[in-house]
Amino acid sequence: MKIAILGYGTVGKGLVDLIDNNKEKRNIKIQSILVRDKNKYKESKYAHLITDNIEDVFNKEFDILVELIGGLHPAYEYIKRALEDKINVVTANKDMLAEYGDKLVTIAKENHVSLRFEASVGGGIPVIKPLTESLEGNIIHNMYAILNGTTNFILSKMYDEGLSYEEVLKEAQQLGFAEANPEADVEGYDAARKLSILSTLAYDRRVYWKDFYLEGISKIDMKDIHYAKKMGCKIKLVGQSKLDDKKVSGFVRPVLVDNNSLLSRVDNEYNIVVFNGDSVGEVSFVGKGAGKEATGSSVYSDVIDIFDNRLCNIDSFTKEKIKVEKIIRNNCQALLRFKSPKTEEILEFINTYVDSYDIVDSNDDELVIMVYVNSEYKINNILRLIKDEGYCKESKKLLKIS
């Protein structure tokens, strides 16, 4: 069993450790390891296999290319080349799958090789294989998930320790949970890419990540946390999608969840994915969403599946892209915050347009209301009318999901 590894960072080292620790079970031979600067690895046990030249990799014979360098380019070109050379590929690259999954799956099929990507969603959580194999007989109606460990860590620390977003982000960067440029995580892009991969496979339609409603956590402040606690809730960055009458709706956004809900109990770097199938009902998968050992485990399992000729159906990536509805059309509730409010005028609007509501807090600085309506459109319309009338300095909305 011969493999080539592109990337020797956290996940790459985790994979190599697993290969070393399981030599008695599986004799996997590493042919080469591609890095950016091989001089950094002169003392490595595998220094003799390490190269910074991609041609050194492809000049050797191997059965599987394991891509762990991330990003779109040159990862896409390397994987495309391997598939066209009839070499199987394992990747953890959710960015590339969300953008080019259709092209790569087509190339893999044309060349009768495998493209596997368990580690691209949920880190160490086995979720792709259960979705495409164990749940294949089900119609998946909807899913909801916490798919980004960085944002979950930040929100957990804000809630538990009363620290501001800026303070926790700095700590997350120091601990290695957040990148120097955290935009992809904190603005929801990472979670949306993962949700699009799961939705594509679950609904057998190509769902593009940029079509979801996207809202990150960078504007969550300590007053949001205060009001969440007051209502017995936590704030989580949640990805949710739904298939209804051959239409898909979905979002990635910070939402309020009850303290007794499944989502509220998933904290820090842990992730959760929940599917609702017509036969199996609700099933959930919880585990570490990142890390050396956890993600390395998912990559290793894909390598073994290819060697054992265990195939999965990923044709959904080649289907026509489906339009995604961004707004919740069914009954929903939301916490509305109005800064420097004209309270009487706002409440008059609320009484006119809202099915029911509760006043959470009211003072000269802020009016906070929980509203209950039959569509998010109604909430957005109320906020627009109040803004147009100049009845507050600014407004803010946090959906609550059950």
What is the CATH T-level topology of the largest domain?
Answer: Dihydrodipicolinate Reductase, domain 2
Order of SSEs, N→C?
EHEEHEHEHEHEHHHHEHEEEEHEEHEEHE
Q: Give a count of the beta strands, DSSP E runs of length 2 or more.
A: 17
Average pLDDT, all residues: 95
Shape: elongated
Main sheet summary: 11 strands, mixed
- Residue share in helices? 25-40%
Low-pLDDT stretches are none
Q: Helical segment tally? A: 13
Q: CA-to-CA gap between the ends? A: 47 Å
CATH class membership of the largest domain: Alpha Beta
* Computed Rg: 23 Å
User: What structural class results from the helix and strand content?
Assistant: alpha/beta
Q: What would CATH call the architecture of the largest domain? A: 2-Layer Sandwich
Strand content: 25-35%
Name of the CATH homologous superfamily of the largest domain: Dihydrodipicolinate Reductase, domain 2
Total count of domains? 3
Please describe what this structure looks like.
The chain is built from 13 helices and 17 strands. With 402 residues, the protein is α/β, with parallel strands linked by helices. It has 3 domains: 2-116, 3-Layer(aba) Sandwich (Rossmann fold), CATH 3.40.50.720; 128-289 and 320-325, Dihydrodipicolinate Reductase, domain 2, CATH 3.30.360; 332-401, Alpha-Beta Plaits, CATH 3.30.70. Strands 7, 8, 9, 10, 11, 12, 13, 14, 15, 16 and 17 form an 11-stranded mixed β-sheet that branches. Strand 9 and strand 10 form a beta hairpin. Helix 1 packs across helix 11 and helix 3 (75-84) packs parallel to helix 4 (94-110). The longest helix is centred in the first third of the chain and has 17 residues, at 94-110. The N and C termini lie far apart (47 Å).
